[in-house]
Design goal:
221 residues, mainly beta, SH3 type barrels, Cathepsin D, subunit A, domain 1, seven-stranded mixed β-sheet, 2 helices, elongated
Length: 221
């Protein structure tokens, strides 16, 4: 981790193209629902890679996908009796045939893989970073998440602006979609303006599959 990358920004327009793909479990197989557009009271979706179709609120497809609601931030679906929310750039978890929890993340316009998750029960937005040895965050995020980082081991980390104080800590739980991992190593950077990086201390516990603009993480242990 030799530099800090800026957090990507997302903007909703009346009609928007979303690069978010979601896998939903239906029985032993997964139904893939991709939202490609949003408008008032409607969502344009692709199901299992098929042609785009427009769903109105309350409409149900043959695959069991129901559009529940739409707002400027995204849409809510009912999939086989389970509510699933999709925001631009957000992913959802699914269970694959082996029963292992997995999550599919789509790349944004800058090629960053962003995913919403939780650290110790607090909400965060991660950037998936296979080049980061551990999860990394700013001291501001650590304080917001009520992490007592100053009780950790202090060290110096190299950044784009030179050396900066950092503390090594262990997070109780890290959750991304349905993947939950306990006892995850992390580093807190003092006074750094940076996103939360989902590094290899979490990713090493998953199998990573990259297919174009999509990345799928499947829990190993």
């Amino acid at each position: 981790m030799d530099r800090c990358r800026p957090r990507s920004l997302f903007r909703f327009e009346a009609y928007c193209i979303a690069a978010a793909a979601l896998g939903f479990a239906t029985g032993s197989s997964a139904t893939e629902v991709t939202v490609v557009g949003l408008s008032p009271n409607k969502a344009v979706v692709q199901i299992d890679g098929g042609a785009p179709r427009t769903l109105s609120i309350g409409q149900k497809t043959a695959e069991g996908v129901v559009l529940v609601s739409v707002d400027k931030g995204g849409a809510v679906f009912d999939i086989a009796g389970k509510r699933r929310a999709l925001k631009l750039g957000q992913q959802h978890a699914t269970s694959n045939a082996s029963g292992a929890a997995s999550v599919t993340v789509s790349a944004d316009s800058r090629g960053h893989f962003l995913v919403d998750g939780q650290i110790n029960g607090g909400s965060v937005r991660f950037i998936v970073d296979t080049g980061a040895t551990v999860i990394a965050m700013s001291s501001a995020d650590a304080q917001r998440l009520r992490i007592n980082y100053r009780s950790g081991e202090m060290s110096q980390m190299s950044t784009a602006n030179g050396l900066a104080p950092a503390w090594r800590v262990k997070l109780d739980t890290v959750r991304v979609g349905e993947i939950s991992v306990n006892g995850v190593e992390a580093v807190v950077m003092e006074n750094q303006s940076m996103p939360v990086l989902l590094g290899m201390s979490f990713l090493n516990r998953t199998n990573i599959r990259r297919e174009g603009q999509l990345m799928t993480l499947t829990k190993r242990y």
